[in-house]
Write a structure and sequence with these properties.
mainly alpha
């Protein structure tokens, strides 16, 4: 899919490919939020301002930064908010312009897909070295087996699984490399995260919507048969009330964090409490993350900040070409929906990738 008609120089094309490749490796050193690779990629792209950033987007970014700054100042009276948190929460919104800095979006997507495939190969190698599959279904429930890659890969398992499943969608809808796409999906499932299920569901939905009704009916019947067979097999080897199914539908850990975060929201619903951490200063909820991008923004910047954030991340689908929506729609939804269950859109590398996807949306008025 060629998203841009103007061809940048060979150097800019190579730079775009390398930028995408590097963002496939979400390495933070010495710890979060020091994503030096992402910061370096962002800084290197400042040499290329090849696309127009709309006045609307710039205005929303400025408003979001002012909202974050005001929330921090307001929250200082009730909580300890460090300088790093204050600066980071304000500058975070600069990443929304990243997509406009990339000189060749197609090459960027190529590099990103290549990088994710490289990570998938590494996960395969690690999987067969660690051999967690020898534990059977306990691999998905017992921490010592489920977290087999924590010593090798960053942000294991959810964030790495998110990237690998993103590679699956990129391979299917943009790169048209179905073999490698399936390879990325299998690697994502090896992480034992439930996140790839969102990617599979979106793929099936969009695939069926494009089919004729007869083909859709056949696929639904085949899908039902496969689910029945899988159900019979699972019931034969897995206790229905055992740990596997309990883990599959586990939500209590999220519910505890959400209820505590909502108590914070009630204290300052409109402007938020600033860039507070879930530590002893606010009750020590026992979690390092809100596990929900939108709840994170809601607590820290209030309703005002959340409305601005939503205006930034939701594309104006009325202006987007229909064929582009079919290609990019499932990938954009893949960022938006799982962010209800994890802080995906609060991580710099993922937000930069998302801004590049938004920049790739062709509008009806584009020539």
């Amino acid at each position: 899919m060629k998203l841009l008609t103007a061809m940048p120089t060979a150097r800019a094309q190579s730079h775009s490919w390398l930028a995408g490749f590097c963002l496939a490796f979400p390495v933070a050193y010495p710890s979060v939020p020091y994503y030096w690779t992402a910061f370096g990629v962002f800084g290197s792209m400042l040499f290329y301002v090849r696309r127009h950033v709309s006045v609307k987007v710039l205005l929303l970014i400025i408003l979001a930064m002012l909202s974050a700054l005001f929330s921090n100042v307001l929250g200082l009276s009730g909580y300890y908010i460090g300088e790093r948190q204050m600066i980071g929460s304000v500058l975070f919104y600069c990443f929304f312009i990243f997509g406009a800095l990339i000189p060749d979006l197609q090459r960027f997507y190529n590099g990103l897909f290549a990088g994710i495939c490289t990570v998938a190969v590494l996960v395969f190698v690690g999987f067969f070295v660690e051999r967690p599959y020898e534990a059977g279904m306990a691999m998905f429930t017992v921490p010592e087996h489920r977290l087999w890659g924590v010593h090798y890969f960053p942000d294991w398992p959810n964030f790495l699984a998110f990237m690998l499943a993103l590679g699956f969608l990129l391979g299917v809808f943009i790169e048209r490399r179905h073999g490698w796409a399936f390879f990325c999906l299998v690697a994502a499932l090896m992480t034992t995260s439930r996140t790839p299920l969102f990617a599979v569901a979106l793929f099936l939905i969009f695939a069926m919507l494009k089919m004729e009704w007869r083909a859709r009916a056949v696929l639904l019947v085949l899908g039902a048969v496969v689910l029945i067979v899988l159900g019979v097999v699972l019931l034969s080897f897995v206790d229905l009330g055992g740990d596997f199914f309990l883990r599959l539908f586990l939500f209590s850990d999220r519910a505890e964090v959400y209820s505590a975060a909502l108590r914070l929201f009630e204290e300052s619903p409109f402007f938020g409490s600033g860039a507070v951490l879930l530590d002893e200063h606010v009750g020590n909820f026992g979690s390092a993350s809100f596990h929900n991008t939108y709840l994170d923004i809601l607590v820290r910047q209030g309703l005002l900040g959340l409305l601005i954030f939503i205006a930034l991340i939701i594309p104006d689908v009325r202006r987007v070409r229909k064929e582009c929506l079919w290609l990019m729609g499932p990938i954009i939804l893949y960022f938006l929906i799982p962010s209800f269950f994890q802080n995906f859109l609060k991580h710099p590398n993922l937000l930069m990738i998302y801004s590049a996807l938004l920049a790739g949306l062709k509008h009806k008025e584009d020539v």
